Amino acid sequence: MSILQEIASAIRVENTGRQELAASILSDATIAANLATPHLWMSLPNRWRAVALVLQLEHRGVLILASSSFSVTSPALEAVRISLGAAPDRGVLETALRSIRSVLSLPHSDTRRALV
């Protein structure tokens, strides 16, 4: 096996491990993913808007992208893209995924602000 094949194999193994970790932590979520890829798509419950979830998580130090960032049509689906490969290791990824699960368990996504 060449060095490039070894590297590609190691990447596939790591992506699969990260996908499995995400699936276990976000087991109540609707996820679209391929085990070989370093990201996943998560549809949101009716009470959530993608932009609101992105903002809530940003305040907690977790960065994800709303589906509207990838959409050329309107309106975009209420979904988010989670990059599993951006975390430097699985421990950091696990912490971020648990934050996502925690925020999703909140009763609503009201992020309105008032000017006073």
From TrEMBL:
It comes from the Bacteria. Gene3D superfamilies: Aspartate Aminotransferase, domain 1 (3.90.1150.10). Keywords: DNA-binding. GO terms for molecular function: DNA binding. InterPro entries: PyrdxlP-dep_Trfase, PyrdxlP-dep_Trfase_small. This is DNA-binding transcriptional MocR family regulator. It comes from Kaistia defluvii.
